Amino acid sequence: MNSKPRLSTYWVTCADGLETLLQEEIEGLGVQNIERFPGRLVFKGKLEDAYRICMWSRLASRVLTPIHTHEIEFSHDARDVAEELYEGANNFDWSLIFAPQSTFAVRLHIEREIKVNSQFATLRVKDGVVDSFMEAVGKRPSIDIKQPEITLYVLAGKKEHTYCLDLSGDSLHKRGYRHYMTDAPIKENLAAAILQRIQLQKKNPDIFLDPMCGSGTFIIEALMMLTDRAPGLVRRFGFNGWNGHDHDLWMSIKGEAAERHKEALEKPLPKFYAFDADWEAVKATKQNIRAAGFEALMHHIQVEERTLADWPDFQAEGKTSIVVTNPPYGERLGDKASSKAFYQGLSALLQKNFPNQTTAIIAAQIEQADVLAIKEPQTLRLMNGKLPIYIRSGEIKPATVTQPFLAVWQPQQFEKIEGAEDFTNRLQKNMQNLKKWAVKENIYCLRLYDADLPDFNIAVDLYGDRLHVQEYAPPKTIDPEKAKKRFNLALAAIRAVTGLNRDAIFIKTRARQEGKTQYTKQSTASKRFVVQEGKAKILVNLTDYLDTGLFLDHRQIRLRIAQEAKGKHFLNLYSYTSTASLHAALGGAASTTSVDLSNTYLNWSKENFVLNGLTVDHADQQHQFFASDCFEWLKEGHEQYDLIFIDPPTFSNSKKFYGTFDVQRDHLSLLKRAMNRLTTGGTLYFSNNYRGFELDDEIKAFYDVEELTSETIGLDYKRNTKIHRSWKIKHLEA
């Protein structure tokens, strides 16, 4: 009659936050009666249970079996914890556990509030083990920190110290395939936990995408799950040198795992897509896939260098898809605002390409995760090493199809506003006249009114479904109370005509700016919105600064640049928020270079780029941003550009050029320097808003010059054709 196998106590450790998922996993392996503690599960079971966890657990960090407990018999203020640990190690006969010919290492974990030098305490544990061997067998084992045959895991506690044999040896998250690393990779067991959380194996998707694959961890872990490849199949373990190791049992479990994997390889697999903007990451992913033993499946995997703005047609309609990724932008951009813009852009892409499909996105801050458009989102907080991460998962919301505001606007019915009848009629007439054009051209942002009537000296601009109302400062001859009353009448009329609520209308007073006033905040509350222009999504700020981040009168020239930029090297001087550069990039420019003296505007520029899925990493040379005086920048460089856009301010304080910049005085020198950087067949667009501006005759004599003012002023500015002047300038043909 066979006796029951002896039950032992086992600890299974994991990263903080994984306890519930890990319990589900090992219960699926047949383990029962599990106790759960922070970062650790405890159960009594057979050796076979421990072996199966070592072989099959994708989430665990270590599998430990406690061997010896040393209780603390005294307590006083000056505890010598290191000596307690030595005594505990020395009081046990370790020759019962492993032979003196074996190498060993000690991993020490110290509970909070226990004060001891961990390095010295670890050394004392090793001394205790060695001295125990000398007393028992007269021989001492050697220490090997890198690849020990036996690993002892010691938990130093307040009331007792527990000495465990680490059956896993090295941490179980190390599968052995990550030969090539990228910055801030996610641990393999955390990646597997995320895939388990979204039920990858149950959903068995047709498409699996990681658009920022890094070193390929999600792709490889998904491959392992979907091919039923045990994570412990090809790695070494810490029980091999243990006296209690059952070799035949382990080989039986290993043979079973190999057979399961072989059978699963006969089943159909999804199409895997692994993209990254960094070529080094693409190479690392390919090399790690091969190192993991999946080279024969490379025909299922499309690994390419791509930005988010360069996604292919996935032909995903009618197919089950899963998108999982670990964006690196929290580290690269270094501030919450830029990272948030990136997550907004990623979310929009997911909505467009994978509506109603499953996603799991890692975020460094919860604010990033909050902008993701996910139905009934679930959040899992984990520790990736010492860094907290947030995983937002769920079903992707479909994109809402938005039309220009004027497409859905209809003339409103409202009571007459006494004293503002003429303004009301003019605004309504303007909107009716612009409606057909805006709908046909898909215009979301435009000017509705620009001081058309002398008594209502304001500008009304539409940004998506919000209004930006600028009150031009009245002359000193006008009674301030009368001006205030008239402005309030205008606001009432604007709300009545547009049908928009107060919270959709933003008000500023526009006066002549001096010095750096235009760069200073106008209010303390930041209200930033995303608006659409052509293919571009652009961040506008309707409250904090005098300018919104998008000059509406230059819309037509930006769209022209988008059409002409494909394959060209584009330079944008006085780039402001670099919206022209953004249009060029989305139009397929080979490169964009944006130069502006203001770091505020350049940071805003980068946010616009990442919002549209374009990389602005410092290692990337395709899209560059320089905080510099444009004159000095032109003087110092030699690169040539096929397409240049210059829209300088009328006047600015630039200490590096005559102390100030004046567009009328300095444009000749500016354009000459810029033309030296223009390729032979290239085009330079020059524009400015100075109403009295006259282009220097020398420019007309030296270059091929064509004025484009009428072509670059949209229908919404035809009532005020002096808003800007613009020219197309090329080198004369030889």
Automatic annotation (TrEMBL):
Start and end residues of each THUMP domain: 49-167
Catalysed reactions, semicolon-separated: guanosine(2069) in 23S rRNA + S-adenosyl-L-methionine = N(2)-methylguanosine(2069) in 23S rRNA + S-adenosyl-L-homocysteine + H(+); guanosine(2445) in 23S rRNA + S-adenosyl-L-methionine = N(2)-methylguanosine(2445) in 23S rRNA + S-adenosyl-L-homocysteine + H(+)
GO cellular component terms listed in the entry, alphabetical order: cytoplasm
GO molecular function, one term: 23S rRNA (guanine(2445)-N(2))-methyltransferase activity
Cell compartments where the protein resides: Cytoplasm
EC number(s) recorded for this UniProt protein: 2.1.1.173, 2.1.1.264
UniProt KW keywords: Cytoplasm, Methyltransferase, RNA-binding, rRNA processing, S-adenosyl-L-methionine, Transferase
Protein function: Specifically methylates the guanine in position 2445 (m2G2445) and the guanine in position 2069 (m7G2069) of 23S rRNA.
Stated family: Belongs to the methyltransferase superfamily. RlmKL family.
Record's protein name: Ribosomal RNA large subunit methyltransferase K/L
Species assigned in the record: Acinetobacter shaoyimingii
Lineage, opening ranks: Bacteria, Pseudomonadati, Pseudomonadota, Gammaproteobacteria, Moraxellales
Gene: rlmKL
